[in-house]
Each structure stands twice: as C-alpha cells, then as structure tokens.
Amino acid sequence: SDLRAIYLAFAIHYYRHKKGEFPGTLDELKPYIKAHMIKDAFTGKPYSYRRRFDDVKLHSEREGEIEKFLY
Asked: Could you report the per-residue pLDDT of 3-62, keeping only the tens digit for each?
C-alpha cells in the first residue's frame, strides 16, 4: 500500500541519519524493517529504488500504470 511506501521513506531517512548516506539498495534496510516491507502490497514485487548522489526515487509498477512515483 502507499502507507508501506511512506514507512519505507521513513526507514530510508532513518538509515541516512544513522549511516550518513542513503542506502544503496532496499535490502540494506532489512536490519531496521521487516523484509516483506520492501515489497509492494498490491503487486508482491519489490519497490523499485534508485539512489543518485543526495536523492532517491522509490516507485511501484502497478497494473495499468507504467510508473507510480511514491517518493
């Protein structure tokens, strides 16, 4: 759900606060969150995540939508 994406966004920022940088992959969040949280509840697939310098993009590819940017 989109609430799961919001939770992930908080986890991403918590990781940045603790480590000084954004995670390279969502798998790096597993010590801080449950593993199923990196998957979109609607599709069952992991969210797509991209880190570029000091910016991140989190999105879901849902049926009927090419990309839905969540964060």
From this structure: 888 899 899 999 999 999 999 999 999 998 998 899 888 888 888 899 987 888 888 877
CA distances (Å), origin 68, targets 44, 52, 54, 59, 60: 15, 18, 21, 5, 5
pTM above 0.85, yes or no: no
| Residue 1 vs residues 8, 16, 21, 48: alpha-carbon distances, Å | 11, 23, 26, 14
